[in-house]
Amino acid sequence: MAELIEHPCVQHKLAVIRNVKTGHKRFRELSKEITKFVCYEALKNIKTKEVTVTTPVAEATCRKIDTDIVVIPILRAGIGMLEGILELVPTARVGFVGLYRDEDTKLPVTYYERYPPQIEGGTCIVIDPMLATGGSTVAALDLLKAKGADNIIVVCIVSCPEGIALVEKAHPDVLIYAAAIDEELNEKKYIVPGLGDAGDRLFGTSH
Ligand code: PRP
Ligand code: URA
Predict the structure, then answer these.
(1) CB 35 near ligand 1, within 6 Å
(2) Ligand sitting nearest the alpha carbon of 200
(3) Rounded Cα–Cα distance for residues 76 and 69 (Å)
(4) DSSP string across 44-111
(5) Per-residue model confidence as pLDDT tens digits over 103-140
(6) 132: Cβ below 6 Å to ligand 2?
(7) Which residue ranges form the domains of the chain, and what is each CATH number?
(8) Which of 112, 23, 36, 26 is nearest to 75 (CA)?
(9) Which of 197, 200, 206 should be mutated for ligand 2, with most atoms under 8 A from CB?
(10) What pTM was computed for the model?
């Protein structure tokens, strides 16, 4: 299932990050800002426990997060979302999946994996700005589940129906949160209208 975050503050920032004239410095800032808003929504159902806190006036019944949160950016572009979620959950642990889309086949190739042991039993948040064919996200979910993760959420910035359908088919237990669900993929498997190559725009590697 995919949930679209339609809040005006998110949609305003999305309009700016999509703009071809937005340079890599502003693109990075906006990736962080949008991620913070989308993750705020994505984490609304995580496990909490009741705690008693003594205020200067009396005892207050409060709630605190009661699960290990492990954030897993898909390299490279997922790195652009890491700071945003860590501002929201500073105690989160971080794992990494390195994947790139083969230019000809458009299929994901895995080149790196490193996770904290808390992926087993904790709440895993996979972050990647683009959910295009869905191949990279499905590959990351396959790798995480093979290592014992069973409570996983996906957060992206721009998604599309084809990618959402692939993830839903392969991993129906995984919820997807996105700031946009765009129309389609083009012949190069880029999201239309999308925002272009997220990794290149984040890191200034485009021409
Ligand atoms: C991009 C993006 C996703 C993937 C999405 O990464 O960050 O990981 O493509 O496409 P998919 O849904 O069709 O698999 P890319 O392969 O360009 O690597 P990069 O982040 O290193 O630039
Ligand atoms: N990867 C990107 O960075 N952008 C797309 O539109 C598709 C895949």
Answers:
(1) no
(2) 1
(3) 21
(4) TTS-EEEEEEE-SSSEEEEEEE-S-EEEEEEETTTHHHHHHHHHH-TT-EE-EEEEEE-TTT--EEEE
(5) 899 899 999 999 999 999 999 999 999 999 999 999 99
(6) yes
(7) 2-203 (3.40.50.2020)
(8) 112
(9) 197
(10) 0.96
